[in-house]
C-alpha cells in the first residue's frame, strides 16, 4: 500500500495510527501542504479534493477521506478492532470521531485558514479562529466521554475515537488552546501515546518532519 | 424514536431521508437554529455539541452526528441497505459522503457563518465564503463519481452518498452556486428526488418549514 500524506496533517496522522494498530506497512509518500503540492495535477488525479491522506491499495485502488479509509482497514483487517461490536457503542465511537473529523478539523485546516487570510483577516485573528474551533470541538468531546471510565475514549483499547482525538489535541496545542480544560481527553491521550502504534505515527517521527 | 432537527438543517435532512428509506417513523422535535434553540441548556444536555440532528432511540439512548446515526440505522435495519457490501465500494461511498459531511457542510454551517459576521466580514463576503465552500466540495464530488454509471451516486439505488448529496445541493443553490456545473451530481439528485423517501424529507415538507 501507498499512503499519500504529510507529517503534520492530522487526517494523515489518523491513518498512520490505524495502519500501525493493524500491523500493516505502507510506503509513505509525503506531499508538502504548505508548498501546495497537494494541488499538483498528478496528485489531483489521485484525489480530486486535493487533500491528504489518500491510500492506494496493492491493486492500485485509491481510497480517500481518513475516516472512510480507517473503516475500510477495519473491515478487511478486523483485528484488533477499531470499533466495538455493539451497534449503539459503534454509534457513540463514530459520533465522537465525527465531532472531530467533521466539525472541528475541517474548519481549521490549512485551506480554510488560508482563505481567512485572503479575506484580509489579521494573523492574530486567524490563530484565534483556529483556537476557537478547537475549543468548541474538544469541549463537546470532553462531555461526550465524561462518564466513560476509559482509560481510552471508549474502554480499555483504542478505537476510531482515539485515532481522531490524539492528532486533534496536537493541533489544539499548536493553536495555543489550554488543553488542561479537558482532563478526560488527556487521560485518553496518555493511554494512547503509551502505545508504539500511536508514538510511531506522531508527526515528529515522520521522515518529512521539519 | 425522536429526531431532534430543524427543517433547513442539511444534516437533519440526511437522517430524515434515512428514516424514510428504512420505513421507520420518528417523532420530529424541531429546534429553531436561527433563534439559537440548539444552545438551550435542555438541548445541550442531549447533544453537548449544540448541533442537530440528535436521535433518541426507544430506550432513551441519544445518538449524535448524522453520519454515525445513519450507519447505526443501517446496522440495525439492514434493508434496504445504504452501503454496498463490498468493502472497497463501501469506502468509495463513505469517502463521497464525508467529502460533503466533513469538508463541505461544516465549513458553511450557521455557526461558522455567524462567526465570520462577528469578525466583521460584510454579508456579501459571508455569502461568497459559503458559495466557495460548496463549489470546492461539489466539484470534487462530481469528479469522484464521473465514471459511475448511476443513476444514483453509486449504482441503481440510493446510498449514504445520495443522502449527503441531495441536502448539500439544496444548500449550494441557497448560496447562489451554479449547480449546472455538476451534471453527474444533478443526475443522481434527479433519481433521488423521484423517490418519496427523499421528497418527504425535503425542508419545505417539514412542519417547522417557514
TrEMBL record, chains A, B:
A GO CC term attached to the entry: cytoplasm
Annotated CDD domains: GST_C_Zeta, GST_N_Zeta
Any one of the GO BP annotations: L-phenylalanine catabolic process
PANTHER family: MALEYLACETOACETATE ISOMERASE (PTHR42673:SF4)
Domain named GST C-terminal: residues: 86-210
Residues annotated as domain GST N-terminal: 1-81
GO molecular function: glutathione transferase activity; maleylacetoacetate isomerase activity
Signal peptide residues on this chain, from the entry's feature table: none
Keyword Isomerase: yes
EC number: 5.2.1.2
Gene: maiA
Keyword Translocase belongs to the record: no
Gene3D superfamilies: 1.20.1050.10, Glutaredoxin
Domain of life: Bacteria
NCBIfam families given in the database record: maiA (TIGR01262)
Protein name as catalogued: Maleylacetoacetate isomerase
One Pfam family cited in the UniProt record for this chain: GST_C_2
Family per record: Belongs to the GST superfamily. Zeta family.
